[in-house]
Write a structure and sequence with these properties.
The protein has 67 residues and is an all-alpha fold. 76% of the residues lie in helices and 0% in strands.
Length: 67
């Protein structure tokens, strides 16, 4: 799995989990969903994505490395 696909899996999982937590536990969990959305938006413009940096340090390959 490449870093780009792992980021999508991670972001989607966190959004789904926080949405469920906000419905069944505490409505304030919706802020985690907003935080993930904001980070996805800013990374599209800036290219800065902390989870991608960590995944690269752990040895995962990027789509750019494959090409």
């Amino acid at each position: 799995m490449t870093i780009e696909k792992a980021i999508l899996v991670l972001a989607g999982s966190v959004v789904m989990i926080s949405a469920l937590l906000s419905k069944y536990h505490d409505p304030l969990w919706i802020w985690l969903t907003i935080f993930v959305g904001f980070n996805l938006l800013q990374s599209a413009f800036t290219g800065f994505c902390p989870p991608a940096i960590l995944m690269k340090k752990m040895g995962m390959k990027s789509d750019k490395d494959s090409a």
